[in-house]
Description:
single chain
Amino acid sequence: MIFRLKEYTLTLVLIVFSLGAFAQKREAILLFNDGSSVEGYGMAYYNHKIKFRASLDSKPDTWTDLMVKGIIIYDKLGTPITYKYVTLEEGKKAKLLEVLTEGFVTLYIDGKARYKDTYFGSYSTGLTYLTGLAMHTTKLYVKKDTENTCIPLFPNFKQKVKEYFTDCIGLVEKLDSGEFQKKNSIDMVDYYNDFCGE
């Protein structure tokens, strides 16, 4: 029994190590607070830190919201996935969330919650094993350019959306008719930005 436990532990360590090594080879762009950026290789972590290195030969450095505003990481297909630091509550430390769509209103997703039931991939590229479930088990946030903090669209997604987008009658009507739901939140926010955003 002890041998089996050691065997499982060793296997788990090897898997975690190989995933970490693979992840650090992802091409990325580090986005600094002053608007500049640098290309290299990086990864966004669930502890809201970024690891980034300029070349595959260099050692990765750890970055936080004190130095950078986010990172763009390219997935296996070369699709960019953007993560940005945002404030969820006044006076609290910023969190690193994935940007699903950006405009006057930006839609964010909590990657930690989203990946809880998935093994690999991005909602934005559809590379998750549990595509339908992914959007139902996650935390979505929205933020207007004029706001300092993100607004959660949970619990009670429909009610929160109605409260937040009261200035967009067309969006509320599409929500009531069932055309807009949590699973197509990107389309909903894009609709707002196209027809109702400033």
